[in-house]
Amino acid sequence: MNEIPISHILFVSTALFFIGMYGLFTRRNMITMLMAIELILNSVNINFVVFNKYLYPDKLDGIFFTIFIIAIAAAEAAVAIAIIINLYRNHQSIDVEEAEEMKF
Question: What is the pLDDT of residues 22-74, one digit of tens each?
Fold first, then answer.
């Protein structure tokens, strides 16, 4: 069975991380920024699983960290979407620059 080299997987993880950073810094829509944060968290999850598999194949520490991050990401997404919906109801926009101008 052919295994994928660790460098290939880390390259994909790094690409996901930087795509997420690009999306976070260049987009003005809050939903798009939330998706970018999810990409960053998923790249971290890939790193935990890969390093766990290649460095400590008999332990599950990386898997437990990944499950914890997935739970945190789900909670973060639920809270962020609730905040975004509330902002949209009050201001009819989810544009970050418009939200800065409105100053609660």
Answer: 999 998 888 899 999 999 999 999 999 999 998 998 999 889 999 999 999 99
Q: What 3-state class would DSSP assign to 96?
A: helix
Four-way CATH pick for 6-102: 1.10.630.10, 1.10.10.60, 1.10.287.3510, 2.40.50.140 = 1.10.287.3510
Interatomic CA distance for residues 48 and 29, integer angstroms: 29
Amino acid letter for position 21: M
Q: Which two tokens stand for residue 84?
A: 């975004």
Q: Whole-prediction pTM value?
A: 0.82
